[in-house]
Design brief:
The complex is a heterodimer of chains A (202) and B (242). Chain A is mostly helical and 202 residues long. Chain A is built from 4 helices and no strands. Chain A has one domain. In chain B, strands 1-2-3-4-5-6-7 form a 7-stranded mixed beta sheet, with helices on one face. Chain B is globular, with a radius of gyration of 17 Å. The model of chain B has no long low-confidence stretch (mean pLDDT 97). Classes of the chains: A mainly alpha (202), B alpha/beta (242). Chain A: It comes from Candidatus Methylobacter oryzae.
Chain lengths: 202, 242
């Protein structure tokens, strides 16, 4: 296996692992939202500004989970493509070797067609991989966008929490956990993007 | 790769083996090719390691697009782990292999090649005017196992039956049966699991007119040595590892 293939396998595998961490954190946000909703309900008028925020956080968490689920399916496609490319490359190399070994055999030339075909399908795989990586990078960008939005909401929540009297502390804790989660998502997704960006369609 | 023509008539049989470029840690195998005017059948085409030298050797006898048929006597890697590579090289080919191994052999990748499952009671492979018989040899050693008999050439290709492990540069035919026996004994006792299967197979094969018995490892048996082998095998107790 060449180093190029190895790092491609690793890059694809790392997406899955980073994303499973994102999934856990997104579920945490969703939990924080439910928690905040309960507190805001108890706080009544004092947390009036907080209630729509909790709905928004919940919505955001749900969308992130959905996006990540889709991206995971994509990552599986990328994995299959990597396996495919690995096999096609191995075949191409063996065909070339066979042609070389055949030397001036009567029918040596008939190998040219399979060699050409193998080369084409190997290049096809490489192109498709690049194309799919570009699309995946787009989806990862969407998740990052969500994470950034969550941080803005967390900042707003902090302001709203300051009006909530005795509920100040618990609502601030909610804002804090949303912020932390969004931060983690942002970092993980960023790592995915860096791992993949060298394969991007240029 | 050494090539030996073992039959020349309306069609040809060629034995390929004793590959000098083979890594030392993989078992040496014999591959057989049946060549008709426009088609070519590879019997037990070999492991993935052997693909390139085997393909190169076949190109001395047939162009790639005339390799229309492959046969796998059973599922072992030394028999057919090259399948995934043939699958990408051949555009219009069939693999004749035991029906019960289909789901397993497809792990090697068999997309463009058509898998033709051989039912337990055997069948035939038609190659232009040549008709080859697929003789059941189950449990010798694999649970789904076939040999190929060519009534015209009087050749029986026997897979792992009749095999012997020998050094490189070994002659392709047995020349001293008595001396050869010791090279086969442990192999047959250890690899062949069933005395009953052996008895049934010998009974079946004794009815065939055989000039050459052609195993997948070691040397081929010719003339009287065929009968000598069957008698020796008949008397041997197998399945000794339990
Ligand atoms: Fe075997
Ligand atoms: Fe074998």
């Amino acid at each position: 296996m060449t180093n190029q293939t190895k790092s491609q396998f690793i890059a694809v595998a790392s997406i899955t692992s980073e994303l499973s961490a994102v999934m856990v954190v997104a579920k945490e946000i969703s939990l924080a939202a439910a928690n905040a909703k309960a507190i805001a309900f108890r706080a009544g008028d004092k947390a009036k500004g907080f209630q729509p925020i909790t709905d928004f956080i919940n919505e955001l968490a749900k969308e992130t989970i959905e996006l990540v689920t889709n991206i995971n399916i994509y990552a599986l496609v990328l994995y299959r493509l990597t396996v495919d490319e690995f096999q096609k490359t191995a075949a191409y190399n063996k065909f070339e070797l066979a042609t070389k070994m055949a030397g001036d055999a009567t029918y040596a030339k008939s190998m040219q067609e399979p060699v050409n075909q193998a080369k084409l399908s190997m290049q096809d795989c490489q192109r498709q991989f690049k194309r799919d990586v570009s699309q995946l990078l787009g989806q990862l960008e969407a998740v990052m966008h969500h994470a950034r939005a969550a941080r803005v909401i967390a900042a707003n929540s902090r302001i709203e929490a300051s009006q909530a009297g005795e509920y100040l502390q618990s609502l601030q804790a909610v804002a804090e956990s949303v912020d932390k989660a969004a931060h983690t998502i942002h970092d993980n997704v960023q790592r995915c993007r860096i791992a993949l960006s060298i394969y991007r369609n240029s | 790769m050494k090539m030996t023509k073992i039959y020349e008539g309306s069609h040809q049989w060629i034995m390929f083996g004793r590959d000098e470029g083979k890594p030392n840690n993989i078992i040496d195998t014999n591959q057989y090719v049946v060549r008709t005017p426009n088609r070519c059948l590879l019997l037990d085409p070999g492991g993935a390691e052997l693909f390139a030298p085997m393909m190169a050797a076949v190109l001395h006898h047939a162009p790639v697009d005339q390799i229309t048929d492959l046969f796998a006597s059973h599922q072992d890697p030394d028999v057919i782990s090259s399948l995934g590579l043939w699958d990408q090289a051949l555009t219009n080919a069939k693999l004749h292999a035991p029906a019960i191994w289909e789901g397993f052999l497809r792990h090697y990748s068999c997309e463009s090649i058509e898998y033709v499952p051989i039912p337990d009671n055997g069948g035939t492979i038609k190659l232009e005017s040549v008709e080859l018989q697929l003789i059941p040899a189950h449990y010798l050693h694999s649970s789904g196992n076939f040999h190929v008999y060519d009534p015209q050439a009087k050749i029986l290709m026997t897979g792992d039956v009749g095999a012997a492990i020998e050094g490189p540069d070994t002659p392709v035919f047995v020349d001293n049966f008595a001396a050869h026996v010791e090279k086969m004994r442990f192999w047959h006792q250890r690899w062949m699991p069933s005395n009953q299967a052996k008895r049934v197979w010998i009974e079946r094969v004794r009815n065939l007119d055989i000039d050459i018995l052609a195993p997948q490892h070691g040397r081929m048996f010719k003339g009287d040595d065929v009968k000598r082998f069957l008698d020796w095998f008949d008397a041997l107790q197998v399945g000794i590892a339990v």
